[in-house]
Fold this sequence. Notes:
Layout: H1 4-7, H2 13-17, E1 43-49, E2 55-61, E3 70-71, E4 78-79
Amino acid sequence: MEWYPTCFHRISPKSIQEKIFDNTTFPPEYYMYRWNQLRDHGTSHFGIVDSDRNAVSMTTTVNYPFGGGVLSPSTGIVLNNEMDDFSTPTEISPDKLPPAPTNFIRPNKRPLSVHDPHHCSQG
């Protein structure tokens, strides 16, 4: 696959660590970005491949900027608003999609999501 070498390039953990500070953030260009997204809703993803080509990845999100708008006073963690992923019969979603009955809130139900687990291998 032609995209493989550009998608999985080697960056040393030390070079990443040197760009992280506890007291400030920087514009995306500062962090060695190659691609950028137009709308950032507080979702992050990382993928790691080791020298034996074992891979692990993780996606985490608070859904929209500042999640549910609630900061836990005991942990300092911004709480997500993933309940917003459910459809509400009387509301149009922020993405202008009509409410989907299969995604209405029900007991023991998970909302439909745009998270897309995937696996890449070569050969």
